[in-house]
Amino acid sequence: MFEDGVTREELLDLITLKNTTRGIDIKEAFDEALKNVPKDKLISVATDGAAAMVGKNVGLIGLLKKDESIPHFIPIHCIVHREHLIAKHFNFEHVFTPVFKIVNFIRTNAKNHRQFKNFIDELDLGEQINDLSLYCIVRWLSTYDVLNRFVVLLKPIIAFLDEKKQSYPQLKDKDWIYDLMFFTDTMEHLKKLNLSLQGKDKNLSELSQSIFSFKRKLQLFQKDIIEKTFNHFPLLKKVVSESDIPPAAILNYKTKLNNLLNDFDERFVDLSVLKPAIAFLLNPFEIDVINNGFTMDKCILPEAAAGELELLEMQEDQGLQIFHKSSKSINEFWKCVPATKYKNFKNAAYRLLSIFGSTYDIESLFSTLKFIKSKFRSKLTNQHLKELIRSSISNYQPDFKKLVTTVQIHVPCTSNE
Questions:
Q1: pLDDT in tens, 182-204
Q2: Which of 298, 299, 312 is CA-nearest to residue 341?
Q3: CA–CA separation, 126 vs 242, rounded Å?
Q4: I need a labelling partner for 262 at 20 to 30 A (CA). Which of 99, 271, 273, 405 fits?
Q5: Contact 215, 198 (CB under 8 A)
Q6: Maximum Cα–Cα distance across the chain
Q7: Contact yes or no for 152/129 (Cβ under 8 A)
C-alpha cells in the first residue's frame, strides 16, 4: 500500500524448500524473505488451509504468534479456498457416484468415447454441448462442469447406455432426477460465487461482501424451495413442471441448504468479526459511535480513543461526505482524506486495504510456472526461476528506453583496406 493510495500485489520472494515443508521450515523461509522489511508493517498473513500453515502450535501462524519480534497480526485463511472446501463437502453422494461412473464408462474407454461422440454428432445438436467432462478433484469448478454437461446430454446418455446394454436404474427414477437437478442448480450458484471471488487486486471488503451476500441468497433459496416456486432452480423447475415433487424431497433440499448456510457461518467466523471494520472502510459516515460504540482490531487501529474522536469529526465534515458519494472507489475516497486531520483513520483504512483476502495470485502463479519451467529449460536455476516468475506476474512495466541508455553500445570493428 503506497502513500498515494495505490495498492499493488507483487511477489516479494520465492524460496525453495528442498527437504521438508514443516511449519518451522516455512517460518525460516518467511524470516529470510522479510529480513529487509520492517516487521512493524505486517498487518495480516494469508495462507491456505494446510496444517503446516495454520497449525496453532507448530504451524506457520502459531510460530509467528509466538515470535516476539512479530507484531500482532490478523491471520486470514484464503477465502476462495474456504469456499471451495464448502462446495466440496456439499455433495449428494447417491447422485454424484452414478454420474461419476457413467462419465468414466464413456470417457476413459477410447472406443466408448469415440462411439459416443459419433452418436452425439448424428443427433445434430448444433452449438449445444457435445461431450462429457472428466472429473478432476483439484479443479475448483470441475464438479459443476461434470454435472452440467451430464444434465444437458442426459437423454443422449440414456439412449447410448441402452445401446451398450448398461443398466443404471437411477436414470429412470424421478426422485433421483429431482436430486440431480437440485444438486446441479446449487453447484451453479456456488460456481458463480467462486468466480466472483477469483481475480487480481480484490481487497478484503469485496471478497467479504460476496460471502455475506451469498449467505443471504441461501436464505432466499430456502424460501424458494419451501414455496415450490423454484425461480432460482431452473433445472429442477423444468423437471417438476409436469408432476409434483414429494414433500420429503422439499424437506431434504431445505435441510441441505440450511446445512450449507451453517457451513458458511462456521468457516467465515473471522469475516463476521471483521464486519464492523469493513463497514467503516466502505462508509464511515453511517457508524453510530455514541449509541453503538466502535471497536476495531488493535493492529488496524492502535489508538482507539483518538480514532473515535476523529470519526466524530469526520462525520461532520460536509466536504468529505459529498466527495464520498461521488468517489468512484474506496481507494479514491481514502486517498483524498487529509492525513493531517484524520491520521489514525486514514492509516486504519490503508491497513484494511492492504490485507490479502485470498492466495489467488499464488495459485495462479503455478500456471505461469508450468510454462516457464519446462523440459526445454533443463539448466534453469532457482534464482533464474524466481526472477522470471517475478517479471512475468509483476504489474510494473519496464522502461526499455531508459534501460537502453544505461547500456554501452557496441560498435562493430571494421578493417581498414
A1: 999 999 999 999 999 988 878 88
A2: 312
A3: 27
A4: 99
A5: no
A6: 102
A7: yes
- Where residue 124 falls (left for φ over 0; alpha for ψ -120 to 50; beta otherwise) is left
Q: Count the residues in the chain.
A: 417
Reduced 3-state DSSP string for the chain: CCCCCCCCCCCCCCCCCCCCCCHHHHHHHHHHHCCCCCHHHCCEEEECCCHHHHCCCCCHHHHHHHCCCCCCCEEEECHHHHHHHHHHHCCCHHHHHHHHHHHHHHHCCHHHHHHHHHHHHHHCCCCCCCCCCCCCCCCCCHHHHHHHHHHHCHHHHHHHHHHCCCCCHHHHCHHHHHHHHHHHHHHHHHHHHHHHHCCCCCEHHHHHHHHHHHHHHHHHHHHHHHCCCCCCCHHHHHHHCCCCCCHHHHHHHHHHHHHHHHHHHHHCHHHHHHHHHHHHHHCHHHCCHHHHCCCCCCCCCCCHHHHHHHHHHHHCCHHHHHHHHHCCCHHHHHHCCCCCCCHHHHHHHHHHHCCECCCHHHHHHHHHHHHHCCCCCCCCCHHHHHHHHHHHHCCCCCCHHHHHHCCCCCCCCCCCC
Q: CA-CA distance, 204 to 81, in Å (whole number)?
A: 14
Task: Give the pLDDT score at 99.
Answer: 93
The number of C-alpha atoms within 13 Å of 254 and in the hemisphere containing its C-beta is 13
Q: Which residues pair with 44 in a beta bridge?
A: 74
Q: Which three cell numbers stand for residue 262?
A: 451453517
Is-contact 83 197, C-beta < 8 A? yes
Cα–Cα distance, 281 to 355 (Å, whole number): 12
The C-alpha cell of 104 is what?
Answer: 468414466
| Cβ within 8 Å of residue 233, ≥6 positions away | 181, 182, 185, 186, 221, 224, 225
- Would you tell me how many other CB atoms lie within 10 Å of the CB of residue 39? 13
What span, in angstroms and rounded, lies between the C-alpha atoms of 44 and 74? 4
Dist CA 220 CA 186 (whole Å): 13
pLDDT tens-place string over residues 326-362? 888 888 898 888 988 989 888 899 989 888 888 888 8
CB atoms under 10 Å from CB of 295, counted, come to 13
Inter-CA distances, 236 with 89, 130, 229, 309, Å:
21, 22, 10, 54
pTM of the model: 0.86
Rounded distance between C-alpha atoms, residue 333 and residue 260, angstroms:
36
Cα–Cα dist 40/69, whole Å: 9
